[in-house]
Design brief:
alpha/beta, ten-stranded parallel β-sheet, 53 strands, 13% helix, receptor, transmembrane helix, LRR_R13L4/SHOC2-like, cell membrane, transmembrane
C-alpha cells in the first residue's frame, strides 16, 4: 500500500478517521447559524475561484454547501474542508489542477466561526500568502492542514493560544522560513506535527517538545534544523513515526531514542550521523515497519541477522509484516546480514564484503547490495524461496561464475541489474522467461556469444543495456519489433558485425541508441531519422525519475516530496557527451542521444537524421562516412554535443552551424573539410582542436590565412578591387604587369624557336622586338609623367 505525501499507511488511516470523527454526516439536515453563513460568504469573497468550484455556496443553509459541515443540534459550522481531493489531476488546457485550485486572501471572518474544529486548505495555491496570525484565535480548532499550498513566511507564534484542543498540525511542503516557535511546545494535545519540506532554519531544543506528551507523529524533514538536546534528555512523548531526514542530528547516534518503545517508522537519513550504531539499538524489540539511516557516515558491522519484531502493531495493520530497511550510502563493513521479516532491503554503496547469504530472498521484494565489495557466486537459491522479488540490484561488485538458472523463477521481476561484475559464460536463454522485466543491465561482465532469441518475449522492457561484452554476430532485426516501451538500447563495445537494421526505427519510444565501438558496416539507414522518441523538443518533454517501485499487497513505501523514495530502483545511464562519459539519473528522461561511433560505417550522412529535432547528442565519430555535412543540420536546435570527427566528410562547414546556440561541444577534426570556418555566432566559441586535421580549412583559429584575408582572418581592407578604387588606375596597373610578364615569357621562348630555324628570321625578329619595347617604354613613361602632374595639381587645389 503506497502513501500520500510521506505518511505511513496507519497514520493516513488515523488522519482520515479523525476527519470523519470531526465531521458529522447528519449535519446537512440542520440549518446553519446565520452569523456563520455570513462569515463564510465573506471568506468566499476573498478567494479567487476562476473555475467556480464554490458554486454551491448559495442559499440560506450553509450546512449543505460543498466542504462545510455543521454540528447536528446547533447548526454551528464545525468544519471547512476545501482541500484538493485530486492534487495530481493536472489540467493541461488551463495549466492548473483539474478539480480545485483556489487562491487569494484568507479573510479574518473565519474567526467568527466560534465552534470550528477542522480547517483544511491543503493542496491549493495560496502562493505568496503568509499564514494568518488570526488562526491562533480559533480556540476550538482540533485539525489544521495547510500543507502543499504555497504558504510563505514564518510560522505564527499565535499557534501556541491553541494549546487546549489542537491535535493535528500539518504545514508541510510549503515555502515557510524562519525558525520554529518555542510556543509550539505548549500544544499539550498535539499528536501529529508535520513541517517537513520547507525552508525553516535554526536550533530545535527540548523547549520545542516541553508539553508534547501525546505526540505520536513528528516530521521535521527537509529543513535546515539542528537538534540540540541534553545527552540524557528523555522526551515526554512515546513516538510512533519519527522523521528528521536532512536535519543535523550528529555526530553520534541519538541516545534519547533509547527511551522510545513504540517506534514503527524511523527516518534519520542524511542527518550527519557518524560512528557505529550502539548495541542497545539492535537489542530493543521495536515494532518497526520502516527504518532509513541512509546517506550518513555510519560505520562498523551490521548484526548477522537483521530482524524486526511485529509485536505492538495495531490490529488494523497486523498484516503488514514486512519492514522497509535502508542502510545505503554509509561506511558499513563486514558481511551481509541475513534478513528476516523484511520486504525491502537496501545495503548499496557501503564497504560490505564476503558472499551473498543463501536464501537471502525469503521475504524480500526489493534487494540492492550494489557498489560494495561482494565476491563469490550469485546463490542458486536467489529466487527459489522468495519468488516475489521485483527488483534485484547486485551491480558493481566482484561477483563471479555464471548467472544462476533460478533467476528464471522470479516471475514478478521488474528490475535485474548485475552489471559491472566478473560474471562469465553466455547470456542465458531463461532470462527470456521474465516477461514483466522492465529494465535489464548486464553490461560490464565477461559474457560472450550471441543475443538470445528468447529476448523477443521481453516486451515490457524500457531499458536494455548489454554493453562492454564480447557479443558477436549481427544485430537481430527482431529488436525493432515488439518493444514499444523501449527507451534505452545499448549494445556498446561488443563485436557486432553486419549492417544497421533499418527496423530499429520502429522503436517508437527510443530516446537513447548506443551502438558505438562495434564492427558495423554499410551506410546509416535513412529510417534512423524516424525515431519518434527523438523528435520531441525539450519544451515538450516532462522530466521525471525513471524509477521502479514494488507494489505487492502488504507492502507500503513512504514517498512524496522531493527526496528519493525508499525501496525504489532509480534508472541511470552513462552517455558519452562533450567528449567524456556522463552519468544521468535525475534528468535521464530528458536525454536523447544517437551514438554510432567507432564502427566502419560508410556512405553519406542521410539528411533524414536532421529530423531528430529533440536530439541532444549526436556522435558519428571514427567511421568512414563521406559527403557533405548537410546544411539542414541547423534544425537540431537542442543539440548539446556534436562529434563527426575521424571520418571522410568533405566540402565546406555549413554556415548554419553557427545558429545552434545550445551547442557546447563540437568536433569536426580529421576529415577532408575545406574552405573558411564560419566566424560568427556559436562557431566563435570553439578552438582549433575542433577543426584540426582538415588540411583544406582556413581560419584564425587554425592560424591558416584564408585567401583575401588579413592576418586576423578577416577580409583584407588594404587591398582594393577595381570597384572599390573608383578609377581605372588599378585596372591599368594590373594589365601593365601582366604585359611585362607575358613579354618576359615571349622573350625567352620565341627567340629560342626562331634562332633554331633561320638566321635571316632571327635578325628580322629582333628588329621588331626592339621597336615594340621602345613603344611600350614610351607609353609607360608618358603615363607615369601625366599621373604625377595630375597629383601635384590636385594637391595645389
Amino acid at each position: 500500500m503506497e502513501t500520500i505525501t510521506g505518511l505511513p499507511f496507519m497514520f493516513l488511516i488515523l488522519c482520515l478517521v479523525t476527519r470523519e470523527f470531526l465531521l458529522n454526516s447528519d449535519a446537512q439536515l440542520t440549518n446553519c447559524v446565520d452569523s456563520d453563513r455570513e462569515a463564510l460568504v465573506d471568506f468566499k469573497n476573498g478567494l479567487h475561484d476562476p473555475e467556480n468550484r464554490l458554486s454551491s455556496w448559495k442559499g440560506s443553509n450553509c450546512c449543505q454547501w460543498w466542504g462545510i459541515s455543521c454540528e447536528t443540534t446547533s447548526g454551528a459550522v464545525i468544519a471547512v474542508d476545501l482541500h484538493n481531493p485530486y492534487p495530481n489531476n493536472y489540467d493541461e488546457s488551463t495549466g492548473t489542477s483539474g478539480f480545485w485550485n483556489p487562491s487569494g486572501e484568507i479573510r479574518p471572518s473565519l474567526t467568527k466561526l466560534k465552534f470550528l474544529r477542522l480547517l483544511d486548505l491543503s493542496f491549493n495555491t495560496f502562493d505568496g500568502n503568509t499564514i494568518p496570525q488570526f488562526f491562533g484565535s480559533l480556540k476550538n480548532l482540533q485539525y489544521l492542514n495547510l500543507s502543499n499550498s504555497g504558504f510563505r513566511g514564518p510560522i505564527p507564534d499565535s499557534f501556541g493560544i491553541l494549546q487546549q484542543n489542537l491535535t493535528h498540525l500539518k504545514l508541510n511542503d510549503n515555502a515557510l522560513n524562519g525558525t520554529l516557535p518555542e510556543s509550539l511546545g505548549q500544544l499539550s494535545e498535539l499528536s501529529t506535527f508535520d513541517v517537513s519540506s520547507n525552508k525553516l532554519t535554526g536550533v530545535v531544543t527540548e523547549a520545542h517538545f516541553l508539553k508534547l506528551k501525546k505526540l505520536s507523529y513528528l516530521d521535521l524533514s527537509s529543513n535546515s534544523f539542528k537538534l540540540n538536546v541534553n545527552s540524557n534528555w528523555v522526551p515526554p512523548f512515546q513516538i510512533s513515526s519519527l522523521s528528521m531526514r536532512a536535519c543535523h542530528l550528529g555526530p553520534s547516534f541519538p541516545a534519547w531514542l533509547k527511551s522510545q518503545k513504540q517506534v514503527m517508522s524511523l527516518d534519520f537519513s542524511n542527518a550527519s550521523l557518524s560512528g557505529s550504531i550502539p548495541n542497545w539499538f539492535w537489542e530493543f524489540s521495536y515494532p518497526l515497519l520502516r527504518l532509513n539511516l541512509s546517506f550518513n557516515q555510519l560505520a562498523g558491522q551490521l548484526p548477522s541477522r537483521l530482524e524486526f519484531s511485529a509485536l505492538g502493531f495495531p490490529s488494523q495493520v497486523i498484516h503488514l509484516t514486512g519492514a522497509v530497511v535502508d542502510f545505503s550510502s554509509n561506511n558499513f563493513s563486514g558481511s551481509i546480514p541475513k534478513p528476516r521479516g523484511i520486504n525491502i532491503l537496501d545495503l548499496s554503496k557501503n564497504k560490505l564484503s564476503g558472499n551473498i547469504p543463501n536464501n537471502i530472498s525469503q521475504s524480500l521484494v526489493f534487494l540492492s547490495i550494489a557498489y560494495n565489495q561482494i565476491n563469490g557466486e550469485i546463490p542458486a537459491s536467489i529466487c527459489n524461496i522468495g519468488p516475489y522479488l521485483k527488483a534485484i540490484d547486485l551491480s558493481n561488485n566482484n561477483l563471479t561464475g555464471s548467472i544462476p538458472s533460478s533467476i528464471g523463477n522470479c516471475s514478478d521481476l521488474s528490475v535485474l541489474d548485475i552489471s559491472n561484475n566478473n560474471l562469465s559464460g553466455t547470456i542465458p536463454t531463461f532470462l527470456g522467461q521474465l516477461g514483466g522485466l522492465q529494465t535489464l543491465h548486464l553490461h560490464g561482465n565477461k559474457l560472450y556469444g550471441r543475443l538470445p532469441s528468447s529476448f523477443q518475449n521481453l516486451s515490457s522492457l524500457e531499458t536494455l543495456n548489454l554493453g562492454n561484452y564480447r557479443l558477436s554476430g549481427v544485430i537481430p532485426p527482431w529488436i525493432g519489433k515488439g518493444f514499444e516501451r523501449l527507451r534505452i538500447l545499448s549494445l556498446r563495445s561488443n563485436s557486432f558485425s553486419g549492417e544497421l537494421p533499418a527496423l530499429l526505427s520502429n522503436l517508437s519510444s527510443l530516446q537513447i541508441l548506443d551502438l558505438a565501438e562495434n564492427q558495423l558496416v554499410g551506410s546509416i539507414p535513412p529510417s534512423f531519422g524516424h525515431f519518434k522518441g527523438m523528435h520531441m523538443s525539450q519544451a515538450q518533454m516532462i522530466n521525471h525519475y525513471l524509477l521502479y517501485r514494488p507494489s505487492r499487497s502488504g507492502i507500503y513505501i513512504l514517498g512524496g516530496g522531493n527526496y528519493e523514495i525508499v525501496g525504489s530502483y532509480y534508472e541511470s545511464f552513462v552517455v558519452n557527451m562533450k567528449g567524456q562519459p556522463l552519468r544521468y539519473t535525475k534528468t535521464l528522461s530528458l536525454v536523447t542521444a544517437l551514438d554510432l561511433s567507432g564502427n566502419n560505417l560508410s556512405g553519406d550522412l542521410p539528411i533524414e537524421i536532421t529530423n531528430l529535432l529533440g536530439l541532444l547528442v549526436l556522435d558519428l565519430s571514427s567511421n568512414q562516412i563521406t559527403g557533405h555535412i548537410p546544411e539542414s543540420i541547423s534544425k537540431l536546435k537542442e543539440l548539446l554535443s556534436l562529434d563527426l570527427s575521424s571520418n571522410r566528410f568533405s566540402g565546406a562547414i555549413p554556415q548554419s552551424l553557427g545558429s545552434l546556440s545550445s551547442l557546447g561541444y563540437l568536433n569536426l577534426s580529421n576529415n577532408e573539410l575545406s574552405g573558411p570556418i564560419p566566424d560568427k555566432d556559436q562557431m566563435l566559441t570553439f578552438n582549433a582542436s575542433s577543426f584540426a586535421g582538415n588540411v583544406g580549412l582556413c581560419s584564425r583559429q587554425l592560424a591558416v590565412k584564408c585567401p583575401g584575408s588579413d592576418k586576423n582572418g578577416k577580409p583584407d581592407k588594404g587591398r582594393t578591387t577595381p570597384k572599390d578604387a573608383g578609377n581605372g588606375d588599378s585596372f591599368i596597373n594590373k594589365w601593365f604587369y601582366l604585359s611585362i610578364g607575358l613579354g618576359f615569357a615571349a622573350g625567352i621562348l620565341v627567340p629560342y624557336l626562331i634562332m633554331t630555324m633561320r638566321k635571316s628570321w632571327s635578325i628580322a625578329y629582333f628588329d621588331v622586338v626592339d621597336k615594340v619595347v621602345d613603344r611600350i617604354l614610351y607609353l609607360w613613361l608618358k603615363y607615369t609623367t601625366t599621373k604625377q602632374r595630375t597629383g601635384r595639381h590636385q594637391q595645389r587645389r
